[in-house]
Amino acid sequence: MSSLVLKDIHKAYGDTLVLDRVSLEVSAREFIAFLGPSGSGKSTLLRIIAGLETPDGGEVWLDGRRIDALPPGDRGVAMVFQHYALYPHMTVRENMAFGLRNAGVPRHEIDARIAQAAQVLEIEAQLEKKPGQMSGGQRQRVAIGRAIVKQPKLFLLDEPLSNLDAALRTRTRVELAQLRQRVDAALIMVTHDQAEAMTLADRMVVLNERRIQQMGTPMDIYARPANAFVARFVGSPAMTLVPATVAAGDGRFVRVRLGSGAEVMTHVPRAGLADGAPVSLGLRPEHVALAPADAATLQGDVILVERLGDRTFVYACLADGMEIIAQDVGSSAVRFGDRVGLRIDGNAAHLFEADGTGRHAEAAP
Amino acid sequence: MKLPARIEGLAFVAPFLLLYGVVLIWPLLMGIGISFHRADLFGAREWIGLGNYATALADPVVHQAIGNTLLLALLIVPPLTALALLLALALNRATRGAAVFRGIFFSSSVLSVTIVTLIWRFILTPDAGLLAVAADALGRTPLPFLSDQALVIPAIAMTTIWWSLGFPVMLFLAGLQQVPADVYEAAALDRAGRWTTFRHITLPAIRRTLLLVVMLQTAGQLQLFGQAQLLTGGGPGGGSRTIVLAIFEVAFGRWELGYATALAEILFAMILVVTLLQYWLVTRREDAG
User: Fold this and answer.
1) Distance (Å) from the C-alpha of residue A281 to the closest C-alpha of chain B?
2) Confidence of residue B81 (pLDDT cuts 50, 70, 90)
3) Spatial CB neighbours of A288, under 8 Å, sequence gap ≥ 6
4) How far, in Å, CA of A327 to CA of A329, rounded?
5) How deeply is B71 buried, as exposed, middle or buried, from its count of CB atoms within 10 A (0-12, 13-18, 19+)?
6) More confident residue, B145 or A153
7) Rounded to whole angstroms, how far apart are CA atoms A146 and A100?
8) Which ipTM was obtained for this model?
9) Is the CB of A74 inside 8 Å of chain B's CB atoms?
10) Which of B190, B201, B204 lies at the smallest CB-CB distance from A73?
11) Cβ of B185 and A71 within 8 Å?
12) Tally of CA atoms within 13 A in the half-sphere of B21 that contains its CB
């Protein structure tokens, strides 16, 4: 059953359109990530669901009830703000109780919910402290606690990890993953970090330029990006897009010719692509390997070596100035300035048409 | 090495300390000294100990002036603070209209007391003033605001509130703009209505500003002088004579400098006590809560 339904959400600030007919369905207990760069409209969409912004058009439904005309407090949603937005002069306990008191929840019930949330979030010892006396990570927990005690149908998390340092971020990521197991509600998280979105979400909604570019499971989006934007935005390091043209031929799959003259046989079905059509060849680092000159598709000069321990990313510059990223073993001996041979795994390559539309290798039989 | 660093530091603050000492501290101490003398403006001094203070305690004119001043402060500070806060809340938005009104409400503050009293004389005069015309239109007898002992203090209070409104509004606006917008959004999601939001979010957030406004206004209004001097000259029958006006009359009308400084020290002590009391009352609850 769908929990949240967005229909044709439209929003403009003056002449600036920020959301263009966005529609979306979220299942009960699903964890969704809105992923996109700054200005893609993802935060605005979240705030429209919360009731903090009014859409110019469209409908918001939650659990079968239309909520877009309701004030924020009556929608059955709870939000964790990017900067936590805790009430500075109230203790942690009062922060969590404030919304419940306003909703007329009986006192003993408030106490019970706070006690339970505090135990789950391990902030029992901090209940009488004020936010100013706490660290960033603790405040984050209080903000989550304030949302949990409301027992909402939907949690909204606005960049929940962006204010934490690296170590705390990893830990909080684990805690968020555990949180979704404990709560009987759907979660929507806004983030610009594709790693966060991929590790936490059941489904990702990639936004850019006021529209949803693609919706799907993290692996689906990683493996079959709908267009060039999604391909470059999801995955780290980003997918390399090499300009190419469709080579003449009559096989079942597309063969492309690169600027250097080298040809790559892909596993992308040929249907609908004209000979000579300009395309981009999309290559993830794991599909480009270093190879001896006689087995290489291309030659390049190494301009950067990124060592991650278990593997090494080699950034190489091709003869025509294009940059391509290859993956090598952790113990790679490659150094800056080396000339290396690159072998492209055409079977895994993606093609993007001139308008950005993605075409993908046929799944292995 | 320790001493030179200290001297270097002192050298940096010396110009300020020197000015502060010469312009503020020294006159303050001199004033206290003079208050123990029978002294005139021309340098004649005779030590009389606490004589001036004893005279002041028994002086009915001083009693009346203290009463008038406290009443004025009471009639001015609370309504002024409440009105300024209300206006600030109404003007605390980023629209063009709000910016214009901010300017209008601040404009009265830039007027000199002379202009302000002139304007209010036009309003209050019982024969042809604005209020008299309004009263006539309603078929009522115009009230003699400036010549009735019971009306003169409220009239001066009204004039002062109108004149002093701009600055507290600005202070409150500055305080309100310190409150992050997302806290209000969190409150909206927490089902807080207008009053709950004001009571539990806004008011605690601007508590310090509120204290500042009340303390500044109290200290300022206890020294009220120009409006009383220009509107009524302290009359009728001393009904609007404030402490500073009394000091002025004693010092520059009767040339009794010793007695005047003694009155000034009494006023100084009064202001100190009242504002420290306010500070203590507010911060005491902050420490407890």
Assistant:
1) 44
2) very high
3) A240, A324, A325, A326, A327, A342, A343, A344, A345
4) 7
5) middle
6) A153
7) 9
8) 0.86
9) yes
10) B190
11) no
12) 6
